[in-house]
Specification:
By secondary structure, this protein is mainly alpha-helical. Helix 2 packs antiparallel against helix 3. The longest helix is centred in the last third of the chain and has 18 residues.
Length: 100
C-alpha cells in the first residue's frame, strides 16, 4: 500500500501496533523514470484519464517518500520482484532483534 500522507501512515501503523501485531515498514522506491517506464509497460497512457491521475501521483509519492517517516527504503530500480522480496527477508532479522 502506498501512503503519501504521513498522518495516515502513523494512524495505520499505530492501529496495527495497538492490536499486538508486529509491524515492519519498508518503503519501496524507484526513480521517476523507472516508475513511468513501469506504468507504460502496464499500458497506462499518460494522456488517458487514469494516466493524468497516476503519473502526477507517482511523482508526489516519490517526493514524500524522502521524508524520515519513510526511512527504511529499498531502491527497486534494478531489482526483480523476487530480489525485492529477498532484500526484505535479508533485513528482517535486524529489525526483529531490535524488538526483542
Amino acid at each position: 500500500m502506498c501512503f503519501t500522507n504521513p498522518a495516515y501512515l502513523r494512524e495505520i501503523r499505530s492501529g496495527l501496533a495497538s492490536s499486538g501485531s508486529l509491524v515492519h515498514h519498508f518503503c519501496l522506491v524507484a526513480s521517476s523514470e523507472t516508475i513511468q517506464s513501469r506504468l507504460k509497460a502496464r499500458g497506462v497512457d499518460p494522456n488517458s484519464d487514469a494516466g493524468r491521475w497516476v503519473y502526477p501521483r507517482a511523482t508526489q509519492a516519490g517526493a514524500v517518500h524522502q521524508r524520515p517517516e519513510f526511512a527504511l527504503q529499498i531502491a527497486t530500480d534494478r531489482l526483480t520482484v523476487a530480489e525485492v522480496a529477498e532484500e526484505i527477508c535479508r533485513r528482517l532479522p535486524e529489525l526483529t532483534s531490535s524488538h526483542a
